[in-house]
Amino acid sequence: LVTDMSEYYCFKCGAVTKKKKKDGTKICAVCRSQDEITAQTMKQNQETIEELILETSAGFSQQERELKAQKRDINALQANVDRQHREINSTKLSVCEQKK
């Protein structure tokens, strides 16, 4: 039984403590330290995730630019093939007309 009113039970582990958090929650030094470590780890993880998202986005943007350039190249090649087909067909028509 706690007789000193300035002592509390830690809400996490039940240990006797004299500490309160700013919000009035009673917590012992061990649990408070674990909370701080957890908060710091979560912050670091969040920062790492944000960095990875930025790197991934940059990578996707680069790939998108490369794909657009490849698409332009393919379209130019296709236009060249189409032009050559028209020339061949035109030549065929001329040969056929000459044979007549």
What spatial order of strands do you see in the largest sheet? Answer: 1-2
The geometry reads as rod-shaped
Report strand %. under 5%
**N- to C-terminal separation?**
120 Å
Largest sheet: 2 strands, antiparallel
- Which residues form runs of ≥5 with pLDDT under 50? none
Count the DSSP helices: 1
Describe the fold and architecture.
- The longest helix is centred in the middle third of the chain and has 71 residues, at 29-99.
- By secondary structure, this protein is mainly alpha-helical.
- It is built from one helix and two strands, in the order E-E-H.
- Strand 1 and strand 2 (16-17) form a beta hairpin.
- The protein has a two-stranded antiparallel sheet.
